[in-house]
Amino acid sequence: MIARRTLLATTAGTVTAAGPAGQVDEDFVAFVTTAADRRAAEVLAGYGAQLAEVRDLGRARAAARGLRTLTSVYVHDASRYHHDGALLGPLQELADALAEAQYDDGLWDQGAVHSPPDTAFSVVDLNLAFGLLERDGRTATVRLRATVERMLRRAGPGLAHGGVHTANHRWLVCAALARVHRRWPDASYARRIEAWLAEGIDQLAGGEYSERSPTYSAVVTNPALLTLARHYDRADLYARVRDNLVASLYVTEPNGEVESVHSRRQDQAALRYLPEFWLQYRELAIRYGDGRFAAVAALLRERGTGQTFGETPLGDRLAELLDRPELAGPLPEATAPPTDFVHHDRSCRLVRVRRGDRTATVFGGTDTPEVRVLSSGLSSNPTFFKMRKGAAILDSLRLSPQFFSLGHFRAESLEAVDGSGSGGGGWRLRADVRAAFHQPLPRQHRRKDGLYPLTDDGRFWSSMDFPHRPKEWRGLRTDVTVREMTDGGWEFDFEVRDSAVPLALELCFRRGGELSGRGLEPVAGARDTYQLVSGEAAYTVGEDRIVFGPGNGKGGKQPPVVDPGERYTWLGGSLTPDGVRVLITGRSPLSYRLTVR
After folding, report:
1. Is 59 contained in some domain?
2. Domain of life here (predicted)?
3. Domain membership flag for residue 407
């Protein structure tokens, strides 16, 4: 392991270095400073909305972040706002509004009443701002510092006794407490941090955390673990973040989008980008001398101004740089991150394949086969394949049999066909689903009043006492074998048997291209949806083209219908992906080969 360079800030606003070379990446500092100045102008122009949000709704996060951003440019001597008195009024207004909205237990609301985890987000921002103001030491900020200090001291006990909702909230609360504890030590803070940490860091073998959320959950977990590493003497946690960032290398698309079909959180069906992790890659590139991370950090800086930074606009990053000036150290020599690989993350049942600007995803890891329900916090996205060929993007390939309204095919396993784990012979996805017709209750379970327990059939509930009834089962077996072709395309062998049902393959392409093919027919009543009846079709974006097929006929026994399942339709929900959709229909028992190239 490369020894860590030590970089120090001698004042709140000047980034200087002390280490083997005593160097600072001045260009990086100037880049962040310029972005922060632009962001500060935006905050000054619109902070009235932040004040209204905290005053009218009690929501603190936007106001706390605004206070942090304005503080960073106020104390930074390279900012055009350095010690600008025009910032003092807005800063104090934000602090006063936050103080007024804070409950007696030290907590704030943020969509949840008296919320410890949401309070923790604001505590991290306020603590960081307080540290910068304290080091700056200006007489003009004495009252501001006193207001922020009161809020932080009041929040500590609430965080030390309050609970959380989700796995990543544990580490967020620990990080907030660690910052407060470092400044104002309290045994109860340490006890709560230790209690959460004693549960163990929920990192899977492949590097993802238990929520398997590469852009929603990890955005919270990684900074929290880095804070604990720095402020709570848990240097071992650096390796946890490093492993997660390595995992991200394999799920990042050439344009910076992150594959998240395997997530158990909101990003399982959302388009999000990697730049939120920019400073994490930079910090650990410097810490470990990792050239791959250095290359990603440099690329994210280059792209960052044109991409979303999630909840953290680029200009909000100056506060982190001033808080951790080691971020301004020179990056190690860059080495190319992986661009030609087959990566199998067994803990998420996810395969990622990249060949330059071509990528593909094979996914068989939804939670549905194990828990048999659909709920927040579960992986349920039925997309089992994705593909990119430059700008031409197949965002989703799904299979929907019309079998007892159980919905889409969701694999129960993902395994290498050759058994080696390399996928050289392809990958097999498999599912066995069944549904029952129920027989009369045995004599001992009958009731004269006819009032039986409300129980679950597996797809609906009824007062039928289902567990005690004999069953007449119907089943559907689906095997999908996915193989990479020598020309860079993919072929899929579908075997569906045991019941005769209509089914539809659904290919959904990202908007922006042109669909062509003689065998395409519009599907009545379905916007931007076509049925491929015969031959091949193509989806073209500029010079990039994905060809797919063949069509598999049409008719009343194989209608162009996608059945999302009773759990969705009963609630008026939909699993229809956005884009240009092509359906290839059939009827089981079915053997069919699809090629996508």
Report:
1. no
2. Bacteria
3. yes
Q: Residue 547 — φ and ψ, nearest 5°?
A: -105, 140
Q: How distant is the alpha carbon of residue 341 from its chain centre?
A: 22
Location of structure tokens 């919270």? 220
Please tell me whether the peptide bond between 589 and the residue prior to it is cis, using omega within 30 degrees of 0. yes
pLDDT in tens, the chain (597 residues): 333 333 344 455 665 543 345 689 999 999 999 999 999 999 999 999 999 999 988 899 999 999 999 999 999 999 999 999 999 999 999 999 999 999 999 999 887 789 999 999 999 999 999 999 999 999 999 999 999 999 999 999 999 999 999 999 999 999 999 999 999 999 999 999 999 999 999 999 999 999 999 988 899 999 999 999 999 999 999 999 999 999 999 999 998 889 999 999 988 888 888 888 999 999 999 999 999 999 999 988 887 655 555 668 889 999 999 999 999 999 999 999 999 999 999 999 999 999 999 999 999 999 988 887 778 889 999 999 999 999 999 999 999 999 999 999 999 999 999 855 556 789 999 999 999 999 999 999 999 999 999 999 988 899 999 999 999 999 999 999 999 999 889 999 999 999 999 999 999 999 999 999 999 999 999 999 999 999 999 999 999 999 999 999 999 999 999 998 888 787 777 788 899 999 999 999 999 999 999
The helix/strand/coil state of 128 is helix
What one-character-per-residue DSSP string does 503-561 give? Answer: EEEEEEEPSSSEEE-TTEEEPTT-TTEEEE-SS-EEEEETTEEEEEE------TTS-S-
Give me the number of domains the chain comprises: 1
Q: Is residue 260 part of a domain?
A: no
> Could you give the CA distance from residue 333 to residue 330 in angstroms, rounded to a whole number?
9
Domain that holds residue 574: 382-434+468-596
Cis peptide before 470 (omega within 30 of 0): no
In terms of DSSP H, where are the helices of 137-217?
142-161, 167-183, 187-197
- Residue count of the chain, please give it: 597
Whether 453 is covered by a domain: the verdict is no
